[in-house]
Amino acid sequence: MAAVDELGYQVNLTARHLRAGRTDTIAFIAPSFHDYFGELADKLALPIEAEGATSCSHARARCPRRRWRR
After folding, report:
1. Contacts of 48 by beta carbon, 8 Å cutoff, 6+ apart
2. DSSP label at residue 8
3. Are 38 and 28 in contact (CB under 8 A)?
4. pLDDT along the chain (70 residues), means of 10
5. What is the pTM of this model?
6. Number of H helices, E strands in the chain
7. Whose CA is closest to 55, among 68, 70, 34, 40?
8. Quick check: helix, strand or coil at residue 39?
9. Contact 29, 58 (CB under 8 A)
């Protein structure tokens, strides 16, 4: 513990998540965040973050020339 204090060690959360095999992140991907999806993302973020997880929202516009694989 003396070496930890002396060197100013800080926990690297990215490394910890990598080692644990989980990130505690929940992603919400929607076509847009206007109206319904925006309200839903806001309502989901509060309880997710209250549990100590991280929420991430992303809007993805649809592209008619591109097909998405499952």
Report:
1. 26, 54, 55
2. T
3. no
4. 90 82 80 80 85 78 51
5. 0.47
6. 3, 2
7. 40
8. helix
9. yes
